[in-house]
Write a structure and sequence with these properties.
The complex is a heterodimer of chains A (about 475) and B (about 450). Chain A has 2 domains: about 220 residues, 2-Layer Sandwich (PmbA/TldD fold); about 240 residues, no CATH class. Chain A is built from 10 helices and 23 strands. Chain B has 2 domains: about 220 residues, PmbA/TldD superfamily (PmbA/TldD fold); about 230 residues, no CATH class. In chain B, about 25% of the residues lie in helices and about 35% in strands. In chain B, the strands form 4 sheets. A 6-stranded antiparallel sheet of chain B has the order 3-2-1-4-5-6. In chain B, strand 5 and strand 6 form a beta hairpin. The chains are: A alpha+beta (about 475), B alpha+beta (about 450). At the A-B interface, strand 1, strand 2, strand 3, helix 3 and strand 7 of A face strand 2, strand 3, helix 2, strand 4 and strand 6 of B.
């Protein structure tokens, strides 16, 4: 993308006023998307953005500049802008010697979206539309979308790191609206992985569409969710948003460093039920949060965060791990070249336990069964979080009964982790988009079926 | 601006007969300063630009974008958009905006030379002062997650094959703080912000007080019991609520059967105390611009008047489909986004009761300081509304103990009907909606 000798000169320019660390990140990302809505293929969209972000660190201060001008002149200008904060330094001019380049291209068997005709992608949408509509007469509206992206980046820094990475991602999603006597309800399902068009060989499109359609249809007969504290059984396929929100964010080292997490100073403590083992794993299969190298050139790792309920470690990026004089855990990510990297999750999941999922339900007298979770949000300083349930049912006398309308759940992370009293032997992981400080990155969230002894359900029915 | 004019000229020269084309060209300069413990944690300076192209041929639409404004990238984007248009389903209403004779309003204060020429050191010092003021507010403020200054100067151009060619530029700046208050083992956080067009107008005292008071007043918060009660939204919360309500009135949602307000024009959909206005020409909005994202003049639209639904938001496409004019409500999410109609400067018409009088008049309610989980807990199709909340109990007109970790639930339809009072304290922040203190009756609170 940019020659090694140019990169070296730009790094030297970045350190000309001093500084402890300099980094050049050059990125090119091409995206394609196609959407069908209301029975018509609306518009295909594609494009390319490229640019470079340069940062210089001086003590705890970071200077950052980004540019879309990838000429040597443009890069040096950005390097000078980034170095402006380091002017007070009297350190001698650093020499920069890049180690041999590590190149991490996409797998040879990956099929780039750009090699597939647009006709084929449009045809997928028509199939999804037909399958969703044929699920039931109450389905009035179907939206389907397909998207792929190819992201290449080069990252080099004054420690000698020199990495080039390619990431390819593909996603398909369906949204539906069902109409009945009780009004309108929506349903949604998506599949998204860090792989090319070969994803479509792994996915049953018709089933994906039917799932989205059935979610909307089921909710037509849903009753208002109860209000108050109840036991909750979370289906594994529902997604591990709970752990992403309830503890994942609180285990990011930047929150720890600023004492803005309830998990600060808790390494070695029992912070969860002994049934809980939580990992963040950037190497997990080809899930949505998977990569080879993070956006700072550190290799992705499988990191154990909580083992049998005991807090083992936090997640780290380069800045936080340098400050703590330890290695990065491969969690330094950025939305694009125009953003500073920070500590981010990859694929965060709770490992499977030993219970039988059906027995967990049978063992629950009265409570809520959640088949699909929506998004969530957490305040890391207090541990208070919310997340939405987009497909949920009542459990009465050990059986799943009436479907419930959408509602949010609210709880406190550390409390919920302690209140997990059953973990099943099933497991699944779903894609999501994680937002932090205005930056979005793809992540995976996984868990087995499990039960929490009580969570506050934000419904409207007095129960 | 020169870059935009040059890019616009090049794109115009690429337009051909029998094809509609629109380009949305953007160029932006940003500064972001983050202070932690009075030191600069990061300082970002950046310039970015790009173009989004829409091509319509034989009723088929294709779009494309490029993250740079060089000729090669633009030419490639045009070629891609043309190719993408071959795959769309033909739609007789597809096309770009036509000039409608409405002149864009004259707006004076959009560009601040003063802001751009203020030395960086002063901006850094402002963010430092914000931290100092926040700490000084109360001994229980233990730290700040960060204290921030940011500014944006952006110029945009919209040109299309129907002869529209319009430019606009604007600057704005803001400062915000995340305060952490503590007592014993307990921590609470609070967010405070001030935004302005000119550097001199940023009110860091306001932002500091807001962040510090929100954090400290939550210390000792308990989980409340479940109940049905009146809630009073702080302006920041009613701003979110206003955005949600206005979002359901997009003609795109209506035409696709995804709005709970479809086919209800002329009906009472809210309390008679409620009038919803969208006026992106109102310069109190930092997002105020004379034109929409299709190049049509921004204008004032009354969406709900004294509880009666008056209309929907239209862009040129949904307008043609419905046989009405665009309301100048074309929105696109950046260069890579597609166009859709929606609110661009909306608020509930403020009432005459002051915030203080409203709170004093209430026997029992909860003042809602912040809500969370709006994305997952509000369904714009069914109207189901269920969000996490924290706030303060109001009893006999006085603020009492703080409460947290509860949800408030109802439906959008019911909440609009249950509006008890719209206070007079309309408050403008960043974003395309403004809020005021707002009282809504009979909301379900889920706690213990």
């Amino acid at each position: 993308m940019v020659d090694a000798d140019v990169v070296e000169r730009v790094l030297r320019a970045a350190l000309v006023s001093g500084g402890d660390f300099a980094e050049v990140f050059v990125e090119e990302k091409a995206t394609f998307s196609a959407a069908l809505d209301d029975g018509s293929v609306e518009e295909l969209s594609s494009g390319v953005a490229r640019g470079a972000g340069i940062r210089v660190r001086f003590g705890d201060t970071t200077g950052f500049a980004h540019t879309a001008d990838l000429s040597e002149r443009g890069l040096v200008r950005a390097a000078e802008a980034a170095s402006a904060v380091a002017r007070r330094s009297s350190s001698p001019l650093a020499t920069v010697a890049l180690t041999s380049r590590l190149v991490s291209p996409v797998d040879v068997d990956s099929i780039l979206g750009s090699s597939i005709s647009k006709d084929r992608k449009v045809e997928l949408l028509l199939r999804l539309d037909a399958a969703a509509r044929s699920t039931g007469a109450s389905i009035r509206q179907v939206g389907a979308s397909y998207g792929d992206s190819f992201r290449r980046f080069l990252v080099a820094n004054s420690n000698g790191t020199f990495v080039e990475e390619e990431q390819i991602r593909t996603r398909v999603s369906v949204s539906t609206v069902a109409v009945g006597d009780t009004g309108m309800q929506g349903g949604y399902e998506t599949v998204a992985r860090t792989m090319g068009f070969e994803l479509l060989d792994e996915v049953d499109l018709e089933e994906l569409a039917r799932t989205a359609a059935n979610r909307a249809i089921t909710k037509l007969s849903a009753r208002p969710a109860p209000s108050g504290k109840l036991p909750v059984v979370l289906n594994g396929r529902g997604g591990g948003v709970l752990f992403h929100e309830a503890c994942g964010h609180g285990l990011e080292a930047d929150h720890i460093a600023k004492n803005s997490s309830v998990y600060t100073g808790k390494v070695g403590d029992q912070v969860a039920s002994p049934l809980v083992t939580l990992l963040d794993d950037g190497t997990f299969g080809r899930e949505w949060g998977t990569y080879r190298y993070d956006d700072e050139g550190n290799p992705a790792k499988s990191n154990v965060l909580i083992k049998d309920g005991v807090l083992v470690d936090y997640m780290w990026d380069q800045s936080q791990s340098d400050r703590a004089a330890r290695g990065s855990s491969g969690n330094g990510r950025r939305q694009s070249y125009a953003h500073l990297p920070m500590v981010r999750m990859t694929n965060t999941y709770l490992t499977a336990g030993e219970s039988n999922p059906e027995e967990i339900i049978a063992d629950t007298q009265y409570g809520i069964y959640i088949a699909q979770l929506g998004g969530g949000q957490v305040n890391t300083a207090t541990g208070d979080f919310v997340f939405g349930m987009t497909e949920a049912y009542l459990i009465e006398n050990g059986e799943i009964t009436a479907p419930l309308r959408e509602a949010n759940l609210i709880g406190n992370g550390p409390e919920v982790l302690r209140n997990i009293d059953a973990v099943a032997d099933d497991f699944s992981i779903v894609p999501g988009t994680c937002g932090k400080d205005g930056q979005s990155v793809p992540v995976g969230c996984g868990q087995p079926t499990l039960r929490i002894t009580e969570v506050t359900i934000g419904g409207t029915a007095n129960g | 601006m020169d870059d935009l004019v040059k890019a616009a000229k090049f794109i115009t020269s690429a337009m051909v007969e029998g094809e509609a084309m629109e380009a949305f060209i953007l160029s932006e300069r940003e500064v972001a300063i983050r202070i932690y413990e009075l030191e600069i944690e990061s300082l970002t300076t950046a310039e970015s630009s790009g173009v989004g192209i829409r091509v319509v041929r034989d009723g088929r639409t294709g779009i494309s974008y490029a993250g740079t404004l060089d000729r090669d990238s633009i030419a490639k984007a045009i070629e891609e958009a043309r190719d993408n248009s071959r795959f769309g389903t033909p739609d007789e209403f597809a096309g770009v905006a036509e000039p409608d004779g409405v002149e864009p309003p004259m707006m004076s204060s959009q560009w601040s030379h003063e802001l751009l020429t203020t030395p960086m050191e002063k901006k850094i010092e402002l963010a430092r002062d914000l931290e100092r003021l926040t700490r000084r507010f109360d001994k229980r403020i233990r730290s700040l997650n960060s204290s921030n200054y940011g500014e944006s100067a952006f110029a945009s151009a919209i040109i299309n094959s129907n002869g529209i060619e319009r430019y606009s530029e604007a600057t704005y700046c803001w400062a915000y703080a995340h305060a952490l208050a503590g007592e014993g083992d307990e921590s609470q956080s609070g967010f405070g912000m001030s935004a302005a067009k000119n550097f001199a107008e940023i009110d860091i005292e306001f932002a500091a007080n807001e962040a510090a008071s929100k954090a400290t007043r939550m210390l000792g918060a308990r989980k409340p019991n479940s109940m049905r009660t009146m809630v009073i939204f702080e302006p920041e919360v009613s701003r979110s609520f206003t955005s949600i309500v206005a979002g359901t009135l997009s003609a795109e949602r209506v035409q696709k059967g995804r709005s709970l307000f479809a086919n209800r024009i002329g009906e009472g959909v809210a309390s008679t105390k409620l009038t919803l206005v969208d006026d992106p020409t109102d310069e109190r909005f930092f997002s105020a611009v004379p034109i929409d994202d299709e190049g049509l003049a921004s204008r004032r639209n009354v969406m709900i008047e004294n509880g009666e639904l008056k209309g929907y938001f239209y862009d040129s496409y949904t307008g043609r489909k419905a046989g009405v004019r665009s309301t100048g409500s074309g929105n696109r999410g950046g260069i890579a986004g597609s166009s859709a109609p929606g609110p661009r400067g909306c608020y509930f018409e403020p009432g005459t009761t002051s915030r203080e009088a409203l709170i004093e008049s209430v026997d029992s309610a909860i003042l809602i300081q912040s809500i969370s989980g709006v994305h997952s807990g509000v369904n714009p199709i069914s109207g189901d509304f269920s969000v996490g909340a924290e706030g303060v109990v109001i009893s006999k007109g006085e603020l009492g103990e703080p409460i947290k970790e509860f949800t408030i639930s109802s439906t959008i339809q019911k909440m609009l009907g249950d509006i008890h009072e719209v206070a007079s304290d309309l408050t403008f922040r960043l974003g395309s909606a403004a809020g005021m203190t707002l009282a809504i009756q009979d909301v379900s609170v889920s706690g213990n």
